[in-house]
Amino acid sequence: MKYLLVTIFAIVCFKASSQIRLGNSLPGDSSNITITTKLGIPFGEMAKLEIEVYNGDSLLWKEYQGVYLLKVNAVNNIKINDSLILRFTDETGTLANDDFNLYQLLYKKKTGSLSSTQISKMRKKYIGKRITVMAYETGQFRGTPDKYFDYKPFVPGIPHYFATTGFHFEHSLVIVSNLSK
Questions:
Q1: Residues contacting 88, CB < 8 A, separation 6+
Q2: Cα–Cα distance between 177 and 91 in angstroms, integer?
Q3: Any bridge partners for residue 139, and if so which?
Q4: Is the pLDDT of residue 63 over 80?
Q5: Phi, psi (deg, nearest 5) at residue 45
Q6: Phi and psi (nearest 5°) for 74?
Q7: 0.70 exceeded by the pTM?
Q8: CB of 165 within 8 A of CB of 143?
Q9: φ, ψ for residue 109, nearest 5 deg
Q10: Across residues 104-121, what is the average pLDDT?
Q11: How far, CA to CA in Å, does 10 sit from each of 4, 22, 66, 82?
Q12: How far apart are CA 165 and CA 61, in angstroms?
């Protein structure tokens, strides 16, 4: 019975993680890597995207806590079969990528702190919202390379190690126009 439960758990975890594509390209040997777009069109090419606001907390990765992401449902009117979830930069002033920006977007003023009740109320209005936008895919290298800490000088009083992600290319979107306004 114990082995059956472990096997079922492993299958469920594998199935769940295989259905979501995050916007990361992990280089094994970075001298031999080819970075391809996630949208299937060239980097920097404008595209009409059907998107949905996605709660980064639901991914259960520290890197995405408190962050709103975009789930791409269609590119230039062609539906995407699996879940493609990307970080974004909004140039339209109509989307927020964290709780403080969402507060400012909804209430037209800044705040220094938010209660969990306020966050929950705002999220109900925002997460799952479907929008059509004009955007392009871009990205950047992020994270810490292998052997970084072998060469970082030790400075007393300053933590020598810190939480980070491995060195990788992170794909993202730049939202240029919100067509759903």
A1: 69, 70, 95, 97, 135, 172, 173, 174, 175
A2: 7
A3: 171
A4: yes
A5: -90, 130
A6: -155, 145
A7: yes
A8: yes
A9: -155, 160
A10: 95
A11: 10, 20, 27, 20
A12: 11
Question: What tokens were used for 156?
Answer: 């007393």
- The full DSSP string for 103-164 is HHHHHSS--S---HHHHHHHHHHHTT-EEEEEEEEEEEEESB-TTHHHHSPP-TTS-S----
N-term to C-term CA, the chain:
54
Task: State yes or no: pLDDT of 116 exceeds 70.
Answer: yes
* pLDDT, position 154: 73
Q: Where are the domains of the chain?
A: 35-145+158-178
Cα–Cα dist 43/88, whole Å: 14
DSSP-based three-state secondary structure for 14: helix
Amino acid at 148: Y
CA distance 177 to 158: 43
User: Do the beta carbons of residue 63 and residue 163 sit within 8 Å?
Assistant: no
Q: Which strand (E) or helix (H) includes residue 54?
A: strand 47-55
Q: Residue 138 is which amino acid?
A: T
Type of residue numbered 172: S
